[in-house]
TrEMBL record:
Protein name stated in the entry: Transporter
Secretion signal span: 1-21
Xref: InterPro entries: FApF (IPR025737)
Family matches, as Pfam families: Phenol_MetA_deg
Keywords associated with the record: Signal
Length: 261
């Protein structure tokens, strides 16, 4: 039986036109998988959370579903160009169903700690570094009980009325046999365009190649999302990701909210 692994944290760069001239609109790493180059203002707190996140994959008569509830990222602005982020999922369920098979595992997820620092901010181009570490806190069967980490390098380019973001990332992950480590390389091309002062639409192409010695697996998805500014510091979003090859989950749907304090 094919094994399935799902990452339920999703993220995106978002550029929104200010509907309120006297306050800077919230800038988030959601809704899509790309990261933004902006950080939370110094001394401010920000919460970015999934209301719900559902993923499904089918292969060989087997259907695997993952449901995450309230996966939440808490951010704190350390300086004008850096912040600290902690992500945790309080409830995660993985279910595999098929002929003679109906297995369900649920519980809490792992903790992810990230540090974002913007290393370049020009009129047209900005760049940030995002090293992270995963702390193994997930319930049995929902994680691999190992510390893992990596670094993302979001690069945003201001276009005429839109923002183009590239998101290369390298992760160092545990081998399938548990004996060593291998690299996974991820790339994202993300285009975000405000269509009103409050509404931004996002399209994205995401690829990830996992170079495990046992088997190299490449995943590809096409992602779409929308984000709406209810207020300068409050954003609602929703999105859908669609797998483009057999190794990628067929569909992922989510809704979320972000709030700066």
């Amino acid at each position: 039986m094919r094994k399935f692994a799902f990452l339920v944290i999703t993220a995106s760069t978002l550029v929104a036109t200010a509907a309120w001239a006297d306050e800077t609109p919230i800038c988030t790493d959601r809704p899509t998988k790309a990261n933004s180059t902006c950080s939370v203002p110094k001394g401010a707190w920000q919460v970015e959370a999934d209301g719900g996140n559902w993923t499904q994959a089918k292969a060989g008569g087997i259907k695997a579903e993952t449901t995450a509830v309230a996966a939440t990222t808490l951010k704190y602005g350390l300086s004008d160009s850096s912040d600290l982020q902690v992500t945790w999922t309080p409830y995660l369920q993985a279910r595999v169903k098929g002929p003679g098979v109906d297995d369900k595992t649920d519980g809490v997820g792992d903790v992810w700690v990230r540090y974002k620092t913007r290393v370049h901010s020009g009129d047209k181009v900005s760049l940030a570094l995002l090293p992270y570490v995963k702390i193994p806190t997930a319930a049995k069967g929902l994680g691999n009980d190992e510390v893992e980490g990596g670094v993302a390098v979001p690069i945003s380019i201001a276009l005429d009325g839109a923002t183009l973001t590239f998101g290369p990332q390298v992760d160092l992950l545990l081998d399938a046999d548990g004996e060593g480590r291998h690299a996974t390389v991820t790339n994202v091309v993300n285009l975000a365009r405000p269509v009103t002062d409050r509404l931004t639409l996002v399209g994205e192409l995401w690829t990830s190649s996992n170079f495990d010695p046992a088997d190299t697996v490449t995943q590809v998805s096409a992602d779409v999302a929308a984000a709406y500014l209810v207020a300068p510091t409050l954003q609602l979003d929703a999105g859908a990701n669609f797998g483009l090859n057999r190794d990628t989950p067929d569909a992922q749907l989510y809704v979320g909210v972000s709030k700066r304090f």
